[in-house]
Amino acid sequence: MSDLDIAVACILLAAATIMFVFNIRLDSSDYAPHRTKLDQLLERRDAIYDNLRDLRFEYRAGKYSEKDYEEIKQTLEIEAARVLAEMDLLTGGTPTPATRQAATERVRNS
User: Fold this and answer.
1) Does residue 38 sit within a domain?
2) pLDDT tens for each residue of 82-108
3) Is 20 inside a domain boundary?
4) 58 with 66: CB under 8 angstroms?
């Protein structure tokens, strides 16, 4: 191979590399904003509230005993208080006594 062939091959390789790098098509997900921790907590809070509403409906429909209902409800309420406490920490809000207690229980249980 001659020096000219090597030079042409290098130029073609460089041109192909540049075209590959700059012709990337962005996906629609590349333009979507990334979810923050607060967004995740808001979604979790909403899911817990939906679960509480569903639990209440199923209890009234007779699917749960009163004891089971109270245990599950208490667990969901504690989880909701923990999520609200984390939201308060992120936003700098003043925690309520319930969220302070839930945060304290989380530290003790960890």
Assistant:
1) yes
2) 999 899 888 887 766 766 666 666 555
3) no
4) no
